Amino acid sequence: MEASSLPAALELVSGGGAGLSPEKRAVLGSSLLLLQRDYRFERVWFWGCIQGVCGAYYIAEGLGPDRAAPRSRLYSLNCVEWSLLPPVTEEMVTQAGWLKGRFQGDPSFEYEYTERNAEDAERLFEDGKEPIIKEEARLVATIEQIDRAVGIIPRGAFVKTPLGSVSENRNFEGLSLTEAKRLSSYFHFTEPVNLKNKTLLEKADLDPSTDFLDSLEHDIPQGSWTVQLEKGGAVVVLRSLLWLGLTFYHVPMTKQYGYVYFGNGEKNLDLPFML
Amino acid sequence: ERGHGPYQPHEPGYGLYQPGHSPYDDQIPDPKSRTLAIENAKAYLLKSSTTSGLNLYDHLANMLTKILDEQPTNAVDIIENISKDVKWAHFQKKMDTLRDEHEILTTFEAAEKRKALFLKENGEGDEELEEEIGETPLPNVMETAFYFEQAGIGLSKDESYHIFLALKKLISVQPIQTCRFWGKILGLEMNYIIAEVQYHEGEEEEETEEEAVTEEGAKWVGEVEDEEEEKEKEDESPKSTYKPPPVIPKEENGTGANKYVYFVCNEPGKPWVKLPPVTPAQIVCARKIKKFFTGRLDAPVVSFPPFPGNEANYLRAQIARISAGTQISPIGFYQFAEEEDEDEEVEGGRDTYEENPDFQPLSVAEMVDSLSAWVHNVQSILKQGRCVWLNPLQKTEEEEENEEEEKAEEPDELPQELQQEIGPPLLTPLSEDEGIQNIPAWTAQPSTNLIPQYAVAVLQSNRWPGAYAFASGKKFDNIYFGWGHKYSPENHAPTLPPPVQAEYPSGPEITETRDPTVEEELAFKAAREEALATAEEEEDEEGAEEDEEEDD
Predict the structure, then answer these.
(1) Is B290's CB within 8 Å of A19's CB?
(2) What is the pLDDT of residues A28-45, one digit of tens each?
């Protein structure tokens, strides 16, 4: 969620019971602003909080002029001092996928990776490195996975310019109530995967400036999003069931929207059994 | 005279007329031709489009008027959108013969219900006021919410206040002695707000619900009996040897897992619904399944093993498990009541406690550092599904009669070694809680490190993510916000279906014997012939011996 609208947004996503203490809220107002100054970000998003066993990680993301470019991610243990996380690599993501269990809360914690099959172990040992994964790498990989899988925006909130860069749509006035209840009005804010598989007939109806991302309709498994009206219908809240803790809110007919993650940082692999 | 209009490609002079470079530029341009050019341009702009009926001149005029009226920043960047908006607005009629019907949005209805919470009921007089100011079972939800907010947990203040008023409404309707906001469980379509309640003694309503669950065993036996009656003269069909496991009766209301009564509602403002008491079978089954709640209490729970009940029962079972696992209090707050005849072997341990009037609260630092400063104040649920163990094999008179009739039943099927299950007694400290793998069962933190004088000790459960507890001085409380599931680092593995039952006992009468192979038959034949041959030899020998004897 936008750093500037943090207080109001936290009120809207608090339906799940998770939020920030007044102390953190107060300090985030200033520290995120300072982040923007120091790193020259155009926009700073407060991404959320991953709860570890001994402590929690607070994550912020900074965006440059092209909103769809890879974002810089920063973490903090107390919302005051922020450290930049290394950019994510595919190797990090695959390695983090092998780890199970909670985050510890200490960024220098090293996981001992137990070999899954002999092939992986041989490959790793060939490099001469021992299979150790630091919690920092796991953190980056998890944030990237969550953004890729369930980071969403309403349709029309961003436009793609003819040059290819993505920027906010100043003409976006919010989704109507009926539109807001449909999953097809929300897009994954990441490289589209299914877009090119659409038939030509479907593509003809799309507007290339706003419909350049995958919508949530075809997410597998079906039903992995819950759409609810909260506060007596004043705000639409989407919660992901694949990554429990990710909450997206939008007030219909206004420009207020955003998503935040408050959770363990673990994927809910039991989802098909639970639906 | 034709003006210097745009030259067509086939005309001579095409491409020659460049503005500013024509050979006739030094001449004063014909004012008439200039005006004519303007008129032609305007006529072109006024041409109506064949598809939409608009013309460019009017459109540009409208657009510029709109821009000058609104004065947006960086208008040149959004000019296309402004153009689209103007065209769009063109199609909305201002005067319509049909009157706009005001949409009755669901949001308005919901707002009505929420507003109703704030209305004070009329016609009750001054007596009610006195009652309200006195001792009331209504918990101070806002105060609890404040403490939890220090740790970053809780709903927005608006929602907390609505829940406060909804609880007040509940108390005015039901005869309630104690009431507590238990927490919120999220669901797919709607969420549940849960209140934990204890009735005044003696005011509970009798349960008139019949158990909708019919046991399979009972049905089976019934069918077999019918068959027997029909086929009296024919051979008896093999009786089913299936004995359903004995049904463990649920605990009485007011004790054990049913100590509290729970009311739920989907949103503050909607009516409160009472949840049925929980049975041990439901708890045992709830341990094996993992399902999301939909938000509708009558939704079926489709799972394997099949859950005996619908979502209301599943919800109640999960609430019971969560309460048993995560309701805690600072040590010393509750103590066991002094009983005159303390029986050392009270079955199942003590299940009542009372507040300790001499409670001395520990400091926040102590509460956070050691987990033994906290104790469970709800009985844990045994494997059986109850808090107090009950031997299901206690023979009632009926069962003894049946045993005499069915002597053929194999008695070794009954598990004779049902040992009494003992759980940790009430008021055990949290340090005895076992963690999961290498994670402790609870994470303790102070709410702030910057202001330790006013910090609140906060505990989060790692076994039931979403269960929180706080303590500050003499105040403490527990709450739950989550999806209602236990944490397990391993993936959920559903129980496999039981192995196929043997239809009949395999004994020598029924099992086929293996036919002897050819070699075996030949070997047998050879052995027989040998035996005959040796028998004949013996006879000959005997005959010879007798002859020898006779000779003598």
Answers:
(1) no
(2) 989 999 999 999 999 999
In a domain, B311, yes or no: yes
Is A192 near chain B, with CB under 8 Å? no
- For residue A28 the two structure tokens come to 């985030």
Contact B171, B197 (CB under 8 A): no
d(CA B167, CA B103): 32
Pairing of strands B467-472, B475-482: antiparallel
Q: ipTM greater than 0.95, yes or no? A: no
A164/A67 Cα distance (integer angstroms)? 11
Residue B341 clears pLDDT 60, i.e. is over it: no
For residues A158 and A227, membership in a common domain is answered with yes
Contacts with B360 (C-beta within 8 Å, 6 or more apart), sequence order: B332
Query: Which site among B115, B146, B188, B267 would you substitute to test the A interface, given the most A Cβ atoms closer than 10 Å to its Cβ?
Result: B188
- Residue-wise pLDDT for B120-158, tens only, equals 765 444 445 555 555 677 888 899 999 998 888 888 888
Q: Are residues A197 and A169 in the same domain?
A: yes
Cβ of B38: how many Cβ atoms within 10 Å?
10
The 10s digit of each residue's pLDDT in B192-231 is: 999 998 887 766 555 444 443 334 434 444 444 444 444 4
Residues A21 and A53 in one domain: yes
| Contact between chains at A274 and B292 (C-beta distance less than 8 A) | yes
Contacting residues for A65 by C-beta, under 8 A, at least 6 apart? A42, A165, A167
How many A-B residue pairs are in contact by the CB < 8 A criterion?
A: 113
Question: Which chain A residue's Cα is nearest to B456?
Answer: A21
What's the token pair of residue A261? 């993650």
Chain B contact present for A228, CB below 8 A: yes
Beta strands in B67-226 (DSSP E): 176-185, 192-199
Q: Is residue A96 part of a domain?
A: yes
Whether A236 and A252 map to the same domain: the answer is: yes
Q: CA-nearest residue of chain A to B303? A: A273
For chain B, what is the domain count?
1
Q: Which domain covers residue B193, as residue numbers?
A: 141-202+246-337+351-390+422-482
The whole domain housing A30 covers: 3-85+143-264
B267, A232: Cβ pair inside 8 Å? yes
Q: What is the pLDDT of residues A258-270, one digit of tens each?
A: 999 999 888 888 8
Cβ burial, residue B245 (10 Å; 0-12/13-18/19+): exposed
Domain annotation covers residue A272: no
Give the closest of A11, A100, A274 to B291, CB-based: A274
Structure-token pair, residue B428 = 């055990």
| A21 part of contact set with chain B, CB < 8 Å | yes
Other CB atoms within 10 Å distance of the CB of residue A58: 22
Q: Which amino acid would we find at residue A97?
A: G
CA A72 – CA A82 distance, rounded (Å): 12
| CB B482, CB B185: distance < 8 Å | yes
How many structural domains compose chain A? 2
With CB atoms and an 8 Å threshold, state whether B290 touches A239.
no
Is B270:B279 a contact under the CB 8 Å cutoff? no
Helix (H, G, I), strand (E, B) or coil at B184: strand
Residue with tokens 């994470």: B443
What one-character DSSP code corresponds to residue B215? P
Please give the pLDDT value at position B364.
78
Tokens of A114: 């137990």
User: Are A20 and B152 a contacting pair at CB < 8 A?
Assistant: yes
The number of CA neighbours under 13 Å toward the Cβ of B12 is 0
**What residues in B contact A176, CB-CB < 8 Å?**
none
Close Cβ partners of B217 (under 8 Å, ≥ 6 residues apart): B242, B243, B244
DSSP string, B381-408: P-TTSSSS---TTPPPHHHHHHHHHTTT
